[in-house]
Amino acid sequence: MTEDFDVRLVEDVKTYTPDPQYRKNAWMGDYQKAYNEFLADPDAFWEKIAKELDWISPWDKVKEWNYPYARWFTNAKLNITANCLDRHVNNHRRNKVALIWRGEEGRERIFTYQKLLSQVARFANALRKIGVKKGDCVCIYMPLVPEQAIAMLACARIGAIHSVVFGGFGAAALNMRIQDAEAKVVITADITIRRGKAIQLKAIVDEAVINAPTVEHVVVLRRRDPLVDLHEREMDFYEMMEGMSDDCPPEVMDAEDPFFILYTSGSTGKPKGIVHTCGGYMVGTYYTCKYVFDLKDNDIYWCSADPGWITGHSYIVYGPLAVGATVFISELTPDYPDAGSFWSMIAEQKITIFYTAPTAIRMFMKMGESWPDKYNLSSLRIIGSVGEPLNPEAFEWYYRVIGRQKCPILDTWWQTETGMLMITTVLGEPMRPGFVGKAIPGVVADVVDKDGNSVKPGTGGLLVIKSPWPSMLRTVYHDDERYRKYWETIKGMYTAGDLAVKGKDGYIMILGRADDIIIVAGHNIGTAEVESALVSHHAVAEAAVIGKPDPMKGNSIKAFVILRVGNEPGDNLKQDLLHHVRTTLGAIAVPHEIDFVDKLPKTRSGKIMRRVLKAQEMGIDPGDISTLEE
Ligand code: WT7
After folding, report:
1. Could you tell me the domains of the chain?
2. Ligand 1 mean position to 157 CA, how many Å?
3. Ligand 1 proximity of 308 Cβ (cutoff 6 Å)
4. DSSP characters over 241-258
């Protein structure tokens, strides 16, 4: 964790008070009342929510807290898909639309709960047939198509642990994730479609599985005519399902059985495999979808993330389906075929709840109001944001232009590690641009100094969570020491790695990361990952990477590179390095700037002082440089 607590002063900001109808009609009701109820008896609070769901057998205890290890709903048995699918099919939602998918060329596919259950069951049976068993890991590397969600749910059905890898990652990043999780099967597609262009996904998988001895099968969704050839150990997604029964009894899972692994960047070169478990994750995502997003039966809900990120796991697939919602998904990009693409979807589908990222909102702002103004957005009742700080200008624009000064904004703070959203301004509470808000009922959050003392209102420090919650990560795969660090950096509390300011009224403002993680367009990028990708290029001797504030992306990536002798700096080499990072890590991690340098600032012990580079770059005071060599 770096030492610079770059604390902004908390100014008096405008407050927006939503229509009282929102609170009156919300599942949560009054925030303070719900929060007090939680504080009075935390276990009873969570137990009441858990009881709304179907369990194969109940728990002995709601929670067992053995610092820093938690177990939730001990010895209870369940299957999350029985809650996401069967529970609705067996009740009044059999014919309700679960998923609406929209492709770029205007193609639409609709799955009712019954249809989705049948597809999931058949694919789950197909996975069982090729030998996938409870506890095996399956890597899912797919575009945003219904089959991506079907593959996830099918794994969950049979107790296989999925590791979904975002389709924008490169071959080396994918290989590392396959190897670390020891995936037995990789599920992919021939292509993904972006801005009218087909990107060859399978070619990346072909490369990524070369050094992955655990992989027994590669399942390919073939979207394109003529069908791509399949080779040894490769099989077609739909051919596998032929002749499969649509009855697939759900695997009986213990509440604490591992559910999925999802990799997130850390401050070393190796991403962390965050492990979530079955029971607590289900309760946390169900609770927040119902009581924070206020999902009702007649909502049409759209979260524009990709299931390859935690946002998509929790708020496209598992949470909304557990609630029985109608979920819209689409492969569309916000600026293709034109800057009205998202707004035309909202108008066409009559979306009522829309959840997106600040980087997208800032891009919409830049493209101008005339685009959303062309469309009727009056179906919207709630709009949300996640991934990085929603700056006040973007808040105001989102509220006025998209929310038409009526829709509450749910700016939600959370992480891959937390599984569910943790801090926001719940419906009915006054909204303050720049501030995410307060901990939701069920969560205890605070801003503290290095010793863990709560800071005074108006000052900043580290964001922490002070007690366990059901959907918290249980470990880091193969690296429990990294798990313990979350709880040991400040004894007794979970440190999120974010810097924050506590407002006078207890509202929390998130400033950004306190460590070597850069949030670029809402994506978590480790400086060390980009550095090691650069150093793996034959011309590079050393590299240092920093994040620079960027008006659109939040941060941009700048790299400083020392070349090996015999290599000349120049534009060609620069392009070559960018290409190298793109193919190894993926487009999201490509530096926006590269400087060739002769030296990097280092401590006497040889650690690169990125803080000094950043200060130089931005023309600010580097702070304490007494450990700098020379
Ligand atoms: C980091 C977690 C959880 C979904 C997407 C990102 C930043 C997330 C907010 C917000 C300010 C935010 C934090 C956090 N972040 N939401 N509403 N306001 N910052 O998940 O990739 O695990 O990244 O995203 O810095 O630590 P993730």
Report:
1. 108-254 (3.40.50.980), 516-618 (3.30.300.30)
2. 29
3. no
4. HTT--S--PPP-EETTSE
- CA-nearest residue, atom 17 of ligand 1: 413
Residue 36, Cβ neighbours under 10 Å: how many? 11
pTM, to two decimals: 0.94
For the cut 50, the answer to whether the pLDDT of residue 5 exceeds it is no
Question: What is the residue with the minimal CA distance to atom 20 of ligand 1?
Answer: 415
Give the residue-averaged pLDDT of 150-167. Answer: 98
Q: Tell me the percentage of the chain whose pLDDT exceeds 90.
A: 88
Phi/psi class of residue 290: alpha, beta or left (left: φ > 0; alpha: ψ in -120 to 50)? Answer: alpha
The crossing angle, in degrees rounded to 10, of helices 42-50 and 31-40 is 110
**Structure tokens, 73:** 């709903």
pLDDT greater than 90 at residue 537: yes
Q: 306 CB less than 6 Å from ligand 1?
A: no
Averaged pLDDT, 516-527: 90
Q: How confident is the model at residue 11 (pLDDT cuts 50, 70, 90)?
A: low
In the reported structure, the alpha carbon of residue 411 is separated from the centroid of ligand 1 by a whole-number distance in angstroms of 10
Contact 332, 102 (CB under 8 A): yes
Q: Whose CA is nearest to atom 14 of ligand 1?
A: 415
Q: Is 387 in the pocket of ligand 1 (CB under 6 A)?
A: yes
Query: Is 472's C-beta closer than 6 angstroms to any atom of ligand 1?
Result: no
Between CA 102 and CA 59 the distance in angstroms is: 40
| Tokens 């924008």, residue located | 168
Q: How far away, in angstroms, is 357 Cα from ligand 1 center? A: 10
| Phi, psi dihedrals of residue 518, rounded to the nearest 5° | -110, 130
Nearest atom within ligand 1 for CA of residue 524: 21
Q: Quick one: DSSP state of residue 432?
A: -
- Identify the residue whose C-alpha is closest to ligand 1 atom 23: 415
Inform me whether the pLDDT recorded for 8 exceeds 90.
Answer: no
Distance, C-alpha 596 to centroid of its chain? 33
